[in-house]
């Protein structure tokens, strides 16, 4: 059994690291408004019901170049307003906007932040990192313990083709368990929230089709490219084994979003409906980029199928949903394993950065002033290179994903070019393919 | 091509009154005017002086981008610095190797500066002045590099790399004279010495003065001819109270927030408004240029409670958010109760860079949109502003 010692991030004010007895007694008829079976079914929470159109296509590029810009989506306003309100109530452990942050000079534009407040002065706990799938343990901290004041709103599909907002909606005990968006009390950036699908069902941290679909909707409904959703599997630096995604705002392009790509394979189906899977180029971490498909469901399922394969084969990974849900990055990683086996260099370990989805995407939170002042593209590149699977291993994993998820590999230059010409009628997809990438094969 | 030319004509015609082109051509200098809002950032005007030096006709140049005058030996880094200045809407003075129509290269001092709309501080044109650098003989005198920050035309902070001579470490035996005597003393006849065109040229005080004078003259003409259309331009981003207005990407982001709010800059004297949303202007009845550069106290009037005003001052002083109900007056002097929420906004340095004030007309406060109360929507403005200011200041070199 491989483990590493980590101080887990405190994401909720109710997250104790005390003994399990304490947690047990709290879970028995708690008398406070938590998200457990004791309180939630008789509570009222704001509810944002998103338009439930399975056939919903990914929206066309929002024209952000026009001088005044399109107005912000309602969900965007709701989330920001609710988050700011929780700020004014003092629910966060620190004001993240007081943390210095900068773009590291260099070609890729890695982003560094000096954040001392995230580092909890508690004893490190042991985390098992060699098993991506672990059963839910109700004695450990999970999101049913969270106080309702930390919940911004429920996020569930509506019954029709419209979105609806109910400022105070009774949680219907008879319907399926509610999905909620809650604050992360140790935010990395403004607006840092947690999406917890079907909180009462107590899923362990593992991706399933419905949950990923929900996460994708969060980005598409917010409709702000600054708002991205991320996921860390166990073994890839998730510390809470209760299914959750994270999200926050950053109005800058992340290095991973700027990386060129090269088409590898596509899902089955008609040309228009195919999901294109590309490989990241010129980036320290090997990864796949999913885009295209006719509907959100197409895209979501392609990614979910791939994640399920990785989970079942015990390969830790991170997922980033970007560009309002139009691009999804899947990054298998092995840093935790290397760390447990003592294979990571001392200087990297000393910076105490655990490369989870945000770090891998290029947003690195540092704890020490020294590391922040000296942060360089070289450091970021080295850190992230340690995360990556080797080229050989990545190739293996990609082939296996293709088989498991039913993707067709792009055969050769001729085919690739041909595909590209056909795809040019779907401008959205083609715009992500740099013209010269097809020659790479 | 038709519509492109149409846009180019309009670029001038909408902004400046007739005869502006003639007035500009009365100036002897070589300069071009480009429009960054038209795709391709084309030249919309080229002076006769320019056409003469470069050997092109007007039609060969209008609608084209300035890169057409660059060539194989043009320093890429210099070109990138110019591009960056365009992106950051800053002035730049830099030596550049350009090519005439007949293919012959020559060195010139290129001075570019933005032309701002006085109304909202947006860049509407870039002015580029070209001063040819005459060939000079080499002399074995060590270089002197002094402070040239004071040549900064628009008063903006001179960034270190912005005004400089090229590759001074290479030109160790070329004379650089700064403010000491005339460069003419050192210039012998051009044929005196073979100058390797590959070597960068040091500019002298004379060229810089010529450039500054040309810029000043052109801006004078443009300002005058824009007065007549009412769409004033000026060489400084904010003529009203010095620097302080926001960059274009922040402007665009803030433009997505469809509510009444203003941003004020506490680091400037009397904490002036540096951004006002369209909805704010609709609510108060003022035009943008009447508001920018002024402190928000102009909204208060006879019956405004001074205690409330003092309260606001206190919260601002202690950098705390607050919500107050204050009696304000529109431009037509009609009063309204303003449910005002003020919050400090920090930039990437972690320090307070602005205060955002979000206004709600009290008579509208019960209007809910999709179930979201105006007070909740107020806070969403604060959140959106905080995200924009923080993110968009991460790449800047200083706060």
TrEMBL record, chain A:
<dbReference type="GO" id="GO:0000166">
    <property type="term" value="F:nucleotide binding"/>
</dbReference>
<keyword id="KW-0547">Nucleotide-binding</keyword>
<keyword id="KW-0963">Cytoplasm</keyword>
<keyword id="KW-0344">Guanine-nucleotide releasing factor</keyword>
<dbReference type="Pfam" id="PF26217">
    <property type="entry name" value="GDPGP1_N"/>
</dbReference>
<dbReference type="InterPro" id="IPR026506">
    <property type="entry name" value="GDPGP"/>
</dbReference>
<keyword id="KW-0808">Transferase</keyword>
<dbReference type="InterPro" id="IPR058866">
    <property type="entry name" value="GDPGP1_N"/>
</dbReference>
<protein>
    <recommendedName>
        <fullName>GDP-D-glucose phosphorylase 1</fullName>
        <ecNumber>2.7.7.78</ecNumber>
    </recommendedName>
</protein>
<dbReference type="Pfam" id="PF26216">
    <property type="entry name" value="GDPGP1_C"/>
</dbReference>
<comment type="similarity">
    <text>Belongs to the GDPGP1 family.</text>
</comment>
<feature type="domain" description="GDPGP1-like C-terminal">
    <location>
        <begin position="255"/>
        <end position="406"/>
    </location>
</feature>
<dbReference type="GO" id="GO:0016787">
    <property type="term" value="F:hydrolase activity"/>
</dbReference>
<dbReference type="GO" id="GO:0005085">
    <property type="term" value="F:guanyl-nucleotide exchange factor activity"/>
</dbReference>
<dbReference type="GO" id="GO:0005737">
    <property type="term" value="C:cytoplasm"/>
</dbReference>
<dbReference type="GO" id="GO:0080048">
    <property type="term" value="F:GDP-D-glucose phosphorylase activity"/>
</dbReference>
<keyword id="KW-0548">Nucleotidyltransferase</keyword>
<comment type="function">
    <text>Specific and highly efficient GDP-D-glucose phosphorylase regulating the levels of GDP-D-glucose in cells.</text>
</comment>
<feature type="domain" description="GDPGP1-like N-terminal">
    <location>
        <begin position="75"/>
        <end position="248"/>
    </location>
</feature>
<dbReference type="InterPro" id="IPR058865">
    <property type="entry name" value="GDPGP1_C"/>
</dbReference>
<keyword id="KW-0378">Hydrolase</keyword>
TrEMBL record, chain B:
<dbReference type="InterPro" id="IPR035965">
    <property type="entry name" value="PAS-like_dom_sf"/>
</dbReference>
<dbReference type="GO" id="GO:0009637">
    <property type="term" value="P:response to blue light"/>
</dbReference>
<dbReference type="GO" id="GO:0009881">
    <property type="term" value="F:photoreceptor activity"/>
</dbReference>
<feature type="domain" description="PAS">
    <location>
        <begin position="273"/>
        <end position="295"/>
    </location>
</feature>
<dbReference type="Pfam" id="PF13426">
    <property type="entry name" value="PAS_9"/>
</dbReference>
<keyword id="KW-0675">Receptor</keyword>
<keyword id="KW-0716">Sensory transduction</keyword>
<keyword id="KW-0157">Chromophore</keyword>
<feature type="domain" description="PAS">
    <location>
        <begin position="39"/>
        <end position="89"/>
    </location>
</feature>
<dbReference type="InterPro" id="IPR000014">
    <property type="entry name" value="PAS"/>
</dbReference>
<keyword id="KW-0288">FMN</keyword>
<protein>
    <submittedName>
        <fullName>Protein TWIN LOV 1</fullName>
    </submittedName>
</protein>
<feature type="domain" description="PAC">
    <location>
        <begin position="320"/>
        <end position="374"/>
    </location>
</feature>
<dbReference type="InterPro" id="IPR001610">
    <property type="entry name" value="PAC"/>
</dbReference>
<keyword id="KW-0285">Flavoprotein</keyword>
<dbReference type="InterPro" id="IPR000700">
    <property type="entry name" value="PAS-assoc_C"/>
</dbReference>
<keyword id="KW-0600">Photoreceptor protein</keyword>
């Amino acid at each position: 059994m491989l483990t590493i010692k980590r101080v887990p991030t405190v994401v909720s004010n109710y997250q104790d690291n005390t003994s399990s007895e304490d947690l047990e007694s709290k879970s028995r008829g708690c008398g406070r408004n938590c998200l457990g079976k004791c309180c939630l079914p008789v509570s009222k929470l704001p509810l944002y019901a998103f338009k439930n159109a399975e056939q919903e296509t990914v929206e066309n590029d929002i024209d952000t170049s026009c001088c005044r810009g399109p107005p912000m989506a309602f969900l965007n306003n709701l989330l920001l307003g609710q988050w700011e309100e929780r700020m004014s109530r003092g629910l966060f452990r620190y004001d993240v906007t007081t943390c210095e942050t900068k773009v590291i000079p260099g070609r890729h534009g890695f982003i560094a932040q000096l954040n001392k407040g995230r580092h909890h002065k508690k004893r490190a706990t042991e985390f098992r990192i060699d098993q991506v799938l672990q059963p839910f343990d109700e004695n450990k901290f999970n999101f049913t313990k969270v106080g309702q004041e930390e919940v911004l709103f429920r996020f569930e599909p509506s019954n029709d083709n419209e979105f609806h907002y109910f400022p105070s909606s009774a949680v219907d005990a008879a319907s399926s368990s509610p999905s909620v968006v809650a604050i992360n009390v140790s935010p990395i950036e403004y607006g840092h929230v947690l999406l917890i699908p079907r909180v009462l069902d107590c899923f362990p941290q593992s991706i399933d089709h419905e949950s990923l679909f929900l996460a994708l909707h969060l980005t598409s409904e917010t409709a702000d490219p600054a708002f991205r959703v991320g996921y860390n599997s166990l073994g890839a630096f998730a510390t809470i084994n209760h299914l959750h995604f994270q999200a926050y705002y950053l109005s800058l392009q992340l290095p991973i979003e700027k990386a060129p790509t090269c088409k590898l394979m596509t899902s089955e189906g008609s040309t228009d409906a195919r999901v294109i899977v590309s490989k990241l180029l010129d980036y320290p971490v090997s990864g796949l980029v999913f885009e295209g498909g006719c509907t959100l469901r197409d895209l979501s399922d392609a990614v979910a199928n791939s994640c399920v394969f990785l989970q079942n084969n015990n390969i830790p990974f991170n997922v980033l949903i970007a560009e309002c849900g139009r691009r999804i990055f899947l990054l298998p990683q092995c840093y935790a394993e290397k760390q447990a086996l003592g294979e990571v260099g001392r200087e990297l370990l000393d910076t105490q950065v655990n490369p989870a989805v945000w770090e891998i995407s290029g947003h690195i939170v540092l704890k020490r002033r020294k590391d922040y002042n000296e942060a360089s593209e070289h450091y970021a590149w080295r850190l992230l290179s340690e995360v990556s699977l080797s080229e050989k291993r990545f190739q293996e994993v990609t082939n296996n994903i293709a088989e498991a998820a039913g993707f067709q590999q792009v055969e050769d230059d001729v085919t690739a070019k041909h595909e590209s010409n056909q795809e040019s009628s779907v401008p959205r997809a083609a715009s992500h393919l740099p013209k010269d990438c097809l020659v790479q094969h | 091509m038709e519509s492109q030319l149409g846009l180019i004509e309009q670029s001038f015609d909408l902004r400046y009154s007739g005869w502006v082109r003639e007035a500009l051509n009365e100036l002897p200098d070589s300069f071009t005017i480009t429009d960054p809002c038209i795709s391709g950032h084309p030249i919309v005007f080229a002076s006769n002086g320019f056409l003469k030096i470069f050997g092109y006709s007007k039609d060969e140049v209008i609608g084209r981008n300035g890169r057409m005058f660059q060539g194989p030996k043009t320093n890429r880094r210099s070109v990138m610095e110019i591009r960056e200045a365009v992106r950051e809407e800053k002035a730049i003075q830099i030596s550049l190797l350009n090519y005439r129509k007949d293919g012959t290269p020559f060195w010139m001092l290129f001075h570019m500066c933005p032309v701002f709309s006085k109304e909202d501080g947006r860049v509407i044109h870039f002015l580029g002045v070209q001063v040819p650098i005459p060939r000079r003989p080499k002399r074995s005198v060590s270089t002197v590099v002094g402070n040239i920050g004071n040549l900064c035309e628009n008063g903006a902070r001179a960034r270190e790399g912005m005004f400089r001579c090229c590759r001074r470490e290479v030109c160790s035996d070329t004379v650089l004279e700064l403010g000491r005597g005339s460069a003419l003393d050192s210039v012998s006849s051009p044929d005196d010495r073979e100058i390797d065109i590959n070597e960068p040229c040091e500019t002298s005080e004379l060229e810089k003065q010529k450039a500054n004078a040309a810029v000043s003259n052109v801006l004078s003409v443009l300002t005058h001819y824009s007065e007549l259309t009412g769409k004033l331009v000026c060489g400084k981003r904010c003529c009203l109270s010095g620097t302080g207005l926001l960059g274009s990407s922040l402007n665009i982001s803030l433009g997505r927030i469809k509510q009444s709010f203003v941003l004020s800059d506490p680091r400037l004297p009397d904490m002036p408004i540096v951004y006002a949303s369209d909805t704010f202007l609709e609510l108060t009845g003022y035009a943008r240029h009447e508001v920018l550069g002024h402190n928000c106290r102009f909204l208060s009037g006879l019956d405004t409670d001074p205690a409330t005003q003092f309260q606001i001052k206190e919260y601002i002083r202690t950098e705390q958010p607050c919500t107050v109900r204050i009696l304000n007056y529109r431009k037509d002097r009609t009063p309204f109760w303003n449910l005002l929420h003020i919050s400090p906004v920090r930039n990437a340095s972690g320090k307070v860079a602005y205060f955002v004030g979000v206004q709600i007309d009290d008579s509208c406060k019960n209007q809910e949109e999709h179930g979201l109360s105006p007070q909740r929507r107020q806070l969403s403005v604060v959140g959106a502003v905080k995200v924009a200011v923080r993110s968009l200041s991460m790449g800047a070199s200083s706060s």
